[in-house]
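This section describes the prediction task in plain terms. A model, or a person checking by hand, is given the sequence of a single protein chain and must write out its three-dimensional structure as a string of tokens. No templates, partner chains or ligands are provided. The sample shown here is typical of the held-out split.
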Amino acid sequence: MALDEQLLDDPDGLTAADPSGSLRALAMAGAQVRMALSATAEAGIAKVVADGRPRAVVVASLGGSAVVGDILILMAGSGAPVPVSVRRGLPLPGWVGPLDLVVAVSMSGRAPGPLGLAAEAARRGCRLLTVGAPRSPLAEVSERTGGVHVAVPRSDTPAARASRMGLWSLAVPMISVAHELGLTDASHEVLERVADRLDEQADKYRPSSDAFVNPAKSLALELSGVMPVVLGDGDVTGVAALRAVSMLARTARVPAMRGALPDDAGDVVATFDGPLAKRPAADIFADPEFDDVPAASPQMRLLLLRDAAPTLDRPDGSWLETARTADAVRATAEDAGVRVTEVSADPGHPLERLADLVSLTDFASVYMALASGIDPLTSPHVADLRDRTH
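The expected answer:
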């Protein structure tokens, strides 16, 4: 994919190329957090938390909103007092019942998976929290069966109504309820700091900032025409890598692999002598006008997402082992001739660090799409798939 570098440094051109408002939607991420906090308070979540901790929490999410369940698992951590799991589609596990909390998330409120799981949870007498569009089928299920629905505020831009662009609108209500249940330490104050961090990132990655000083535009250029392998060096960065490959695929139309250390180190470095690691040497005797010269395969590029030293959430120092593994993977890649891009989160709460990396890769994905003449919001093939499966 060849990017139009001149467009990246043309704010007016980027605006014209982005009629759906994808860049504006990403710039509003901090506002999404604040509005979602207000919407959660207005929804009356006391009804969900009044009976204390559930036996387990099951998150129903799909497609662009799927990562919200992974965010909750990250926030709860390995020391969570109750199991937290993600379910993409029917049926609910057989053990789920009245002692459990089911959280169904869908921006449109119409996604069949979350909608069906919410209805089944209601039939089983589970506590039910739903997050999505107001006056949607999902809202009706929740309100009709005694659940609590947190309505995502309406937006005037098409992109902001897309689940992948409204990540924080969907995640914050779920995180807030989990905090009230004692499952996470992501308090209201933490979420306010996340909002501030997202505002700072949006200013750094704004369209009027030139590519040579804009990390998101620089990353877009580095990922142009390559096969990205996105590797996180721990729990926070592993979720960020999951989000990054989803945004690269759905927004920039770039297929990417992802992994998390230390588990996936071997799988990743094994590819460093494979067919995508290096371009074949050019045939100096070939004449492009007369010889059938095969197109070169895109070369791999390792995008290494690094966490800040998480001394507060991992006081045992175990992060040092993972950091050493990440250093070793980078050194192995460089020795093998594989290009590496490394980006790091700033210190802070795990949710703040996640916000750093998500913001960067979100903006980079949209810049890649716009500079290659692609609508970041709408894929005709996704639309075809939806028509054929519904």
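For orientation: The chain has a mean pLDDT of 88.
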